[in-house]
Amino acid sequence: HSLQAVRAFLAYNQIPYHIMIENVQELLDDEQRDMVKYRGLARSTDDFVYTTYHDLNSINSFMDMLVAENRNMVSKVVIGQSYEKRPLNVLKFSTGANRPGIWIDTG
Q1: pLDDT tens-digit profile of 38-96?
Q2: What are the Peptidase M14 domain coordinates in residue numbering (predicted)?
C-alpha cells in the first residue's frame, strides 16, 4: 500500500513527520458532496455559497451575475488566456471616475 511505502521512506531517511489529518479522503468526499449540493443553486449573488469550493463554470457564472446585478459599477474584463487557452477574466469595479485603482488577487 502506498501509505506504508511513504512511512517506510520517511523512517528509512529519518525524516520526522506528524499526521495532521487522519482521513483526507473523507474531507474530499464531503467537499464533493457540497459541490454537488450547491451546484446551480445560485440564482443571484445573494445565493452564492462562499464557504465551499466552486469549479470554474460556477465562478464564471457568479461573475456574470455580479455584472448583471451591478451594471453601473461592475464589468468583466478578459486580461489574457490561461495555459489551456481559457480566458482569464477579472472584475473591474468602477464608477467611471478617474481615480487610482488597486488589484486584489484571490483564489
Answers
A1: 665 666 777 787 887 888 888 898 899 899 999 998 999 999 999 999 999 999 998 87
A2: 52-107
Domain-embedded: residue 16: no
Residue for grid cell 468602477:
94
Q: How far is CA 92 from CA 33, 51, 54, 63, 75, in A?
A: 32, 23, 21, 11, 5
Q: What's this model's pTM, rounded to 2 decimal places?
A: 0.58
Q: Is residue 101 packed enough to be buried (19+ CB in 10 Å), middle (13-18) or exposed (0-12)?
A: exposed
Tally the domains of the chain.
1
C-alpha 69/C-alpha 44 separation (Å) is: 8
- Boundaries of domain holding 37: 22-93
Residue 9 lies in a domain: no
Element (H, E) at 33: helix 24-38
Handedness of CA 46, 52, 58, 60 (dihedral sign): positive
